[in-house]
Amino acid sequence: MAQPTSTNRGDGQICLSILIPMYNEAEMLQPLFSRLSQVLSSIPESSEIVFIDDGSSDKTWDLLQQLPVSSSEHQCIRLSRNFGKEAAMTAGLEQARGLAVILLDADLQDPPELIPQMLQAWREGFDVVNMKRRKRLGESWFKRLSAAAFYRVINSMAESPVPENVGDFRLISRQVVDSINELPERNRFMKGILSWPGFSQTEILFDRDPRHLGETKWNYSKLIGLAMDGITSFSIKPLRLATWAGLLTALSAFTYGGWVFLKTVLWGGEVAGYPSLMIVQVALAGVQLLALGLIGEYLGRVFMEVKQRPIYLIREVEQQQSTRTSVSHAEVGENVRYLESTR
C-alpha cells in the first residue's frame, strides 16, 4: 500500500480519530480525558476525539458537554437509547473523519499512552495495528479460560480469523474504515468485522490494566450472547455440525437395530424394552432440539436483517473546535442520521 501521509495541525485535515463508546461512564470521563489529552498534545498529527454516548442514564452526556477546550477537536454523539457497544462503535466509525482511526474503551484498561506506537506502525504502512493483550490483569481465571475457548472455537469455524486476545483496541486506516462502513449487516460482531477486510496487519503486545474506576457493564450472559453473535455471524459450520450429528445418530440407530435383529435371529435373545427405548428417545430428542436451536439462531438473525432497521439512531451531536459550538443537523452534514436509517 502507499505510505500514509501524516497531517499536521492547522491544515484543516484530521489525521487521527479516537473513537470512545460510553455507557454510564460519568466517573471515568475526567481521568480518561486528562490522559488522552496529554497523549494527543504530544503528537504532531491533527486529531479528533469522537465520544459516543450509548444512551447513558447517568451524567455522562452533561459532562461531555462541559469538556474543556483542548488541542484536539471533539465530536460528542448522543444515541437515542442504549443500542449496545457494537452499534455505538458503528456510529463512531461512520462519523470519524481521520485518516487513521483508533477504537478505545472508556475504562482505561487499554492505556492511551500506546497511541504513539500505534501511529508509528501506521506510518510504516500497516492498515491495521492490533493491540494484543500479553496479560489480562484484573480478570478472573474463568473469564480468561472462557475467552481462550471462544477464540479457539470461532477461529476453527470462521472463514476470516479473529486475532486471539485482541479486543476492540486497535488502529485501522481510512481504507479499512470505508470498507467496514460499506458492510450492510445489522447483527454486528465488531471483533470479526474489524478483522474481516484483511489488508496489511501487525501486532503490538501490551499488558492490559485493571479497570480504573467503577464496574464493568458486561456480565457473563452478555458475553455469551456476544459469543453466539460472533459464531453465527461469521460461520455456517454449526449448521453443518447439526447435520453431521443427525447423520451420525441415524447411522448409530440403524447399526444398533441391525445388531439387535441379528442377535435375536441367531441367538434368540430377548430384546430389551423400556430402558433401550427411553435412551434412544432421549438421545434423538436432544439432537433434534440442538438442531432446532441452531436453526432458530440463524433464522432469528435473518429475521432481524430483512427488517432493515437502522443500527442506531442519533439524538444529537455537538462538536468543539477552538470554542464549543452546538451543531445542528444541517451543519453536521449527510453522515449524521437523526432518527432515520443509517444506510
From TrEMBL:
Q: What Gene Ontology cellular component terms go with this record? A: plasma membrane
List, alphabetically, the InterPro entries matched: Glyco_trans_2-like, Glycosyltransferase_2, Nucleotide-diphossugar_trans
Give a yes or no for keyword Transmembrane helix in this entry: yes
* Keyword Cell cycle among record annotations: no
Entry superkingdom: Bacteria
**Membrane topology category:** Multi-pass membrane protein
Outline the extent of the Glycosyltransferase 2-like domain.
17-178
Q: Which UniProt keywords apply?
A: Cell membrane, Glycosyltransferase, Membrane, Transferase, Transmembrane, Transmembrane helix
TM ranges: 241-262, 274-299
GO MF term list: glycosyltransferase activity
Query: For this UniProt entry, what is the primary localization, expressed as one broad class?
Result: membrane
Compartments reported by the entry? Cell membrane
- Pfam families attached to this UniProt entry: Glycos_transf_2
Similarity field: Belongs to the glycosyltransferase 2 family. GtrB subfamily.
Q: What is this protein called?
A: Conserved hypothetical glycosyl transferase
